[in-house]
Amino acid sequence: MNKQHPHISVQDLAMAYGDYVLMRDLTFTINRGDVFIIMGGSGCGKSTMMAILVGLKKPAKGRVLYNDVDFWGTSHEIRDTIIRRAGVMYQSGALWSSMTLAENIALPLETYTNLSPSRIREVVELKLALVGMAGFEEFYPAEISGGMQKRAGIARAMALDPEVLFFDEPSAGLDPISACHLDDLILELRESLGTTMVVVTHELASIFAIGNNSVFLDVSQRTMSATGDPKLLLHDTHNPELHRFLTRGAKS
Amino acid sequence: MTTRGELCIDTPSGELLQVILIGDWLLDTSLPSIDQIQHAVKEKPEVQTIILDARKVTNWDSGLLTFLLKLHTFCTDKNINLDAGNLPQGALRLLKLASTVPVKKDARQKEKPISFLTHVGDEAVDFFQSSGELLAFIGDALVAFIRLLQGKAQFRRSDLSLLMESSGAAALPIVTLICFLVGLILAFIGAIQLQLFGAQIFVADLVGIAMVRLMGAIMTGIVMAGRTGGAFAAQLGTMQVNQEIDALKTLGISPMEFLVLPRMLALALMMPLLCLYANVMGILGGMVVGVWMLDIGFIQYFNETAKSVYLRNLGIGLFSGTVFGIIVALAGCMRGMQCGRSASAVGDAATSAVVTAIVGIIVTTAIITIICNVLGI
Description:
CATH topology of chain A: Rossmann fold
Largest interface: A-B, 24 and 18 residues
Largest sheet of chain B: 4 strands, mixed
Mean pLDDT of chain B: 89
Number of domains of chain B: 2
Strand order of the largest sheet of chain B: 1-2-3-4
Low-confidence stretches of chain A: none
Number of helices of chain A: 9
Strand content of chain A: 25-35%
Number of domains of chain A: 1
Structural class of chain A: alpha/beta
Largest sheet of chain A: 6 strands, mixed
Order of helices and strands of chain A: EEEHEEHEHHHEHEHEEHH
Number of strands of chain A: 10
Strand order of the largest sheet of chain A: 6-7-8-3-9-10
Structural class of chain B: alpha/beta
Oligomer: heterodimer
Distance between the termini of chain A: 38 Å
Number of helices of chain B: 12
CATH superfamily of chain A: P-loop containing nucleotide triphosphate hydrolases
CATH architecture of chain A: 3-Layer(aba) Sandwich
CATH class of chain A: Alpha Beta
């Protein structure tokens, strides 16, 4: 695996809600196989950044390149095929509440593959087993806990064996042990599948445990102030805002 | 003993203004406002420092703090020193906490006074925008329908049958009740007039034609707007809140095909059947009045109805019903898809879906009636 092969590049991106510019001049690269952390304080636009990367919100300016294809500049059809190779885990799981977990995971498979129902069933069981939820096929999302919903959300995101997985605040609202399990799961999946992981989070423990590359969105500057391995950033940074963030508010 | 919060202003020297706070500074009592101080400063522009003396404050809560925060902002604006040395310790610390982070100026929503013309203009622009959205939505729905005809649409057949059940069979009781009563009411109203001429038998014509041609479809449409249209909006709205629709989009599955199309199909297929059933119920309601109150024979009533109601009446009724079904589904789904990300937005979506659907039904009825009149059917 070539670690320096860029997978997603963001160039000179600006995001805005109406006239309110949230962030500008964002330029960073996510390499293949990275666990890339998008970090920053509350309200800095982390989730908006993810919405732009997965095709839900158009950026105000700039480009997003997936393997050198301009994601927002290309046609709707090509954007669809690009995003089909990505999996997204939403903050609350966003499982379709009218379907069982098995049906949730089966839907992308039914839509995009020609697998027979029994093969799909096997894949569903495998994906649920991978996230530690074997045996929960016939449960509805409302019948399981928040942490389980997130894990089932990961199983669904992995259904089509994506090249890149997005996680929106994976550990928010989880107890420390479940959060840690989730981090282990993310690392495990990256090691075994080589999937690029993009994680939106502000949980310091997770950032240091799993991240090997990152971008810091600085609310006060309205732009990114650093990119790189979070562990190195902690030692090298001269940016007081980032240092405070990475040390949980300790004075530099 | 408790006394109301008060404030005294003193000017020991030209550059100094002393403000003495006395008594209980609690939120639920009436407290002096900062105006007095502003007034005093206006009268003596040479004031450089305001000294707060709070030693006589007995009790305090957020009431004191809001006053202090206002005073603090006022002093910063006017470049006046604020000496708050002997405030209660807790209050001092809270004041510091509230005033350290500067107010994010452009984050706060702007509340400009809006002139009448601006308001009218905004409303007009909104109206055109929402008309545009409506047309775009209808267009998208049409594209989804064409893809269905091409056999390319992605949705689950099991969803469709569930929706058909919930918007068809499950609606029978309420349709029975409403349409039976509407038939009954029509018969009563007709009977009062027709009895004057001894023409009771024409109650059968009246009820038959009215129900089959118009009322059956309208009443079913309105029932479905309230029952199913609202439910569609709430379902899709909640899915929007829960990011379930985003999840569909990021899988490249069109919510238009996956969610809106089956709902539209279900209503378009079920509405004519419900209309047919509603017609029968309405005629039965009329028959009850005719047979029991007007002494028309059962067979006589039936024959009169059969004689007066032409197939074209039924055709118009069923056609209207299908159109109403599509309108209800479109209104419900559109409001659901446009829903914001909060609980109150879901409520608004459901309300607005029902209103849109009912307005749509009435307007369409008028259009269909006029067209039929012009064509002479």
